[in-house]
Amino acid sequence: MPQTNTQQQAPLTQEILRAIDSLRFGSIEITVHEGRVTQIEKREKVRFSSQPLEKLA
């Protein structure tokens, strides 16, 4: 029996949710070609406090 469109999209949806869940600061870019997702790109930003490190301890 062929998979339905929803069943085919489940792994893709899970991958997108995983990327979002693992990100604190940044962006997720989803690339689509001819109506199909071909790439998920995650850009993460690492932020540092403006205080010197010795004052954080």
Summarize the structure in words.
The chain has helices at 5-21, 53-56; strands spanning 26-33, 36-44. The protein is of the alpha+beta class. It has a two-stranded antiparallel ribbon. A hairpin with a 2-residue loop joins β1 (26-33) and β2. The longest helix has 17 residues, at 5-21. The model has no long low-confidence stretch (mean pLDDT 85).
Give structural attributes.
elongated, alpha+beta, 57 residues, 37% helix, two-stranded antiparallel ribbon, single chain
Strand order of the largest sheet: 1-2
Order of helices and strands: HEEH
DSSP, total strands: 2
- Low-confidence stretches are none
Instruction: Compute the average pLDDT.
Output: 85
Largest sheet: 2 strands, antiparallel
Estimate the global geometry from the Cα principal axes: elongated
Q: From the helix content, strand content and strand pairing, which structural class follows?
A: alpha+beta
Number of helices: 2
Give the CA-CA distance, first to last residue.
60 Å
Helix content: 25-40%
Proportion in β-strands = 25-35%
Report the C-alpha radius of gyration, rounded.
18 Å
List the helices and strands and how they pair.
Elements: H1 5-21, E1 26-33, E2 36-44, H2 53-56
Antiparallel strand pairs: 1-2
Describe the structure in brief.
This protein is of the alpha+beta class.
